[in-house]
């Protein structure tokens, strides 16, 4: 996740012509990681496949 993700401290939202910044880091104490939608399933499925292989070898 850290290899493919992009760290963001916040985001901008436009409402009725005004731009507002939502500071994730200030609100939660940590930045968020924006993660490519195609990379997420790959990284989520890999551990599941590894566990399945471990069970089949037992």
SSE layout and pairing:
Elements: E1 6-8, E2 10-15, E3 18-23, H1 24-28, E4 32-34, H2 39-57
Number of beta-strand segments:
4
* Percent helix: 40-55%
Number of helices: 2
Uncertain runs with pLDDT below 50, 5 residues or more? none
Number of domains: 1
Strand order of the largest sheet: 1-4
Distance between the termini: 29 Å
The rough form would be described as: elongated
Question: Radius of gyration over alpha carbons?
Answer: 18 Å
What sequence of helices (H) and strands (E) makes up the elements? Answer: EEEHEH
Q: Main β-sheet: number of strands, strand sense, barrel status? A: 2 strands, antiparallel
Mean pLDDT: 83
- The structure class reads alpha+beta
β-sheet strand percentage: 25-35%
Describe the structure.
By secondary structure, this protein is α+β, with helices and mostly antiparallel strands. The chain has one domain. 41% of the residues lie in helices and 31% in strands. It contains two helices and four strands; from the N terminus they run E-E-E-H-E-H. The strands form two sheets. A two-stranded antiparallel ribbon has the order 1-4. The longest helix is centred in the last third of the chain and has 19 residues. The radius of gyration is 18 Å and the shape is elongated.
């Amino acid at each position: 996740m850290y290899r493919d993700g992009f760290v963001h401290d916040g985001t901008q939202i436009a409402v009725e012509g005004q731009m507002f910044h939502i500071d994730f880091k200030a609100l939660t104490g940590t930045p968020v990681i924006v993660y490519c939608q195609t990379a997420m399933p790959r990284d989520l499925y890999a551990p599941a496949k590894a566990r399945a292989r471990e069970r089949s070898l037992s």
